[in-house]
Design goal:
DNA Primase, Chain A, 4 domains, single chain, Znf_CHC2, binds zinc ion, 506 residues, DNA-directed RNA polymerase, primosome
Length: 506
């Protein structure tokens, strides 16, 4: 079913912008309008305005703008339909729905039943963790050993799957769920030709539910605790109708408000890194678990902030992983920093060892922007070998030209020329050559994104005016630092905060 247009109109009519925003932010009357500190970016003097006569809000600091529905979508990170339902609830408006086409109904029902069974599974695993003998003895003691409090276990809805073939699926089938849906949700494995319903995918493992941005369980990560060489340490749900690995970040639901408020996102590797940092009071953290970083995941972060710090383990494999993934993040216009950890430490172990305060101090001290970081690592490797030094220059210039913002590129060329003691003009000439090559090779790749599908394939949702919306379609070549910059033409593609503007963000 879909909310019919008349209901949508009634909701829009009823939802007064001052009341809706006032539920989340304390507004002060200022002439005919209202103002507040912006809930979407960090600020001390209010630049967030609500205009009751036009029924819109607008932040002159970060450019966030829209009507009541858009405000709810963004503040809660939910889709259009969900925002309408929230407002209908607030104003006691009965929702009238209209029939979907047969195809739409089948799709929607299929998705709904997956969410329902995944939610059932999550509750089941949670129950086993806290109430079964095996769950307490193995799962709970493991989580306690890692220092996960009761509160944090609840926040992340951690669970345990019993160590036998079918205790979960037997329970689910007895409750009336079909084997087909269980299989589609990735919970049951059915061997073709087998007479039995199948067996549980997750057995004898602690369970980390994976949530979409609205908090629905869409998949599971599971870690085995006993040593069994035939079993992988971590096992994840397969791709399903509601779970597309490459578009999901572990912890985004729990982290999104902190990311928005602090205008910063930490990216770690594992589930336990995310949870340990939350436990230590660092909540703006997500993990790209199970995959190396993808463009979709980066864009998901970019919906909340352009500032990202990647926390990597201190071993060489971690460093190389960092270098590999990162040109991708630069291309998306995000500001990337890197923090490495001492040998044999990961964020999880390190925060448990040194405590929250020392950990935060380390983040501050050890944080380096990606270009500087990469240059240093490559220079160390190259030593005094002129051929290898030339290759390093190439490699670094190659990364710099991935940055869509011309001014930032300029800053980096300047810095790198000093670091490597080479002529800045030479770097820029080299960079411009590469830029021209890039532009003629793949012109379609740099289209700005004005909206993105919600993770898990939900309804298309609004993307706030972030760094992403500001990317120029084709980065213009740049000139040396001292020469006059060409004035950037203002358009939806390079929106920066102006008093009045129209772009993807408004
Ligand atoms: Zn703002």
């Amino acid at each position: 079913m879909r909310i019919n247009p008349e209901t949508v109109e009634r909701i829009k009519h009823a939802a007064d912008i001052v009341e809706v925003v006032g539920d989340f932010v304390s507004l002060k009357k200022k002439g005919a309008n209202y103002s507040a500190c912006c809930p979407f970016h960090n600020e001390k003097t209010p630049s967030f305005n609500v205009n009751p006569s036009r029924q819109i809000y607008k932040c002159f600091g970060c450019g966030a703008a829209g009507d009541s529905i858009k405000f709810v979508m963004d503040i809660d990170g939910i889709g259009y339909g969900e925002a309408l339902r929230y407002l209908a609830g607030k104003y006691n408006i009965e929702i009238e729905e209209e029939e979907l086409t047969d195809e739409e109904t089948i799709r929607q029902n299929a998705r709904e039943s997956l969410y329902i069974i995944l939610n059932f599974a999550k509750n089941y695993y949670q129950h086993q963790l806290h109430h079964s003998e095996e769950g307490q003895a193995i799962g709970l003691s493991y989580f306690r050993e890692r220092g996960f409090s009761n509160e944090i276990r609840k926040k992340f809805e951690l669970g345990y799957s019993l160590d036998n073939w079918d205790s979960f699926s037997r329970e689910a089938l007895a409750k009336g769920y079909s084997a087909e849906v269980l299989e589609k949700a990735g919970l049951l494995i059915h061997k073709e030709g087998s007479q039995t319903a199948g067996y549980d995918r997750f057995r004898g493992r602690v369970i980390f539910p994976i949530h979409n941005i609205a908090g629905k369980t869409i998949a599971f990560g599971a870690r085995i605790l006993k040593s069994d060489k035939n079993q992988p340490k971590y096992l994840n749900s397969p791709e399903t109708e509601v779970y597309h690995k490459s578009e999901v970040l572990y912890g985004i639901y729990q982290a999104k408000n902190a990311i928005r408020q602090l205008e910063h996102c930490y990216l770690v590797e594992g589930y336990t890194d995310v949870i340990s940092l939350h436990q230590a009071g660092i909540e703006n953290v997500v993990a790209s678990s199970g995959t190396s970083l993808t463009v979709e995941q980066i864009r998901l972060i970019g919906r909340f902030t352009p500032n990202i710090t990647i926390l990597y383990d201190g071993d060489m494999a971690g460093i190389k992983a960092a270098l590999r993934g990162l040109d991708l993040v630069l291309e998306e216009g995000l500001n990337v920093n890197i923090v490495l950890f001492p040998d044999n430490e990961d964020p999880d172990s390190y925060v448990r060892k040194v405590g929250a305060e020392a950990f935060k101090a380390h983040l501050k001290k050890a944080s380096k922007d990606f270009i500087t970081f990469k240059t240093e690592i490559l220079l160390q490797d190259a030593g005094n070998d002129p051929f290898r030094l030339a290759a390093v220059i190439q490699e670094v210039v190659n990364s710099i030209v991935k940055i869509p913002d011309a001014i930032k590129r300029q800053v980096f060329f300047h810095r790198i020329s000093e670091m490597m003691r080479v002529d800045e003009q030479m770097l820029i000439t080299e960079g411009n050559k590469l830029l021209r090559k890039q532009q003629s090779a793949k012109p379609a790749d740099r289209q700005p994104r004005q909206s993105g599908a919600a993770p898990g394939g939900g309804p298309t949702t609004w993307t706030p005016c972030s760094a992403i919306a500001r990317l120029p379609a084709n980065p213009p070549p740049i000139r040396p630092f001292r020469k006059k910059l060409r004035r950037k033409r203002f358009s939806a593609r390079n929106c920066i905060t102006r008093k009045r503007h129209s772009c993807a963000c408004s």
